[in-house]
Design brief:
The chain has 252 residues and is mainly alpha-helical. The protein has helices spanning 2-10, 21-30, 33-38, 64-68, 74-78, 96-101, 105-119, 124-134, 144-173, 203-207, 225-244; strands spanning 81-86, 178-183. 48% of the residues lie in helices and 5% in strands. Helix 7 (105-119) crosses helix 8 (124-134) and helix 7 (105-119) runs parallel beside helix 9 (144-173).
Amino acid sequence: MRYAKELASRVNCSTEAATENARLVHCLKQRPWEELTRVDIAAPKYFSAFGPTVDQRSFLPDDVRHLMGKRTDAVFASTPLLVGVMKNEGQLFLSPQDLNEGLTEAQMKRMLRTFVRNVFNFHRQKIYDIIAYHYSDWEKPRDPYVTRDNMMEFLSDSQYAAPTIELARYHSDLEAPTYVYAFGQPSKLEAHPHWAGSVHGDDLIYVFGAPLVDGTEPFGSIYGRSEKVLAEYVLRYWTNFIKTGLVPSSRR
């Protein structure tokens, strides 16, 4: 609601009375989507300004975790699920300078403290100590590239891998078909360094079969034989899952 009101005020839809939320929503619906998306609404780092709201009614009647645990939910419990993560999802949170020059120990500590402060409300020092311990390389504590990689691994785990695995566990507990994949093919996008491995969205290159047609927008056009073979496997997995809800076993 906080960010919705901020957006409304930026497009001249604000209202003072809390009882006039319906009018606020109606006003927002009249605005062109281009006008709404041009507004830059800043949320605390590692958060999104907008997301589904637990409205206690039709949209989200209860906490998502509680809803996912209900065996009477015919849709979630009976729908096959395929989810995946890239090797270095967390690269998106690092600047080009961080990627090229690495991170000092002090920089990593500041980033971890910002994360803990923004994400957690209680036991922050204990949580910070646990994270810092598990994502530090005690043999090379002052190597800026090792520190960068450790920070990237932490951001990948916390922002992408952990929520994905949590979702998969809820789903599999209902005895529904659940598949999880980890994608590690080095990125073909020029915006990302080759050494970083796969980053967010890299699997889409193969899901859409770009290597098999020598490139298609918005992906590149230069691919080797191994990448074409990989695209065939990925397409086989995805199309079989879409058709049947099952993923074939690998024969590589």
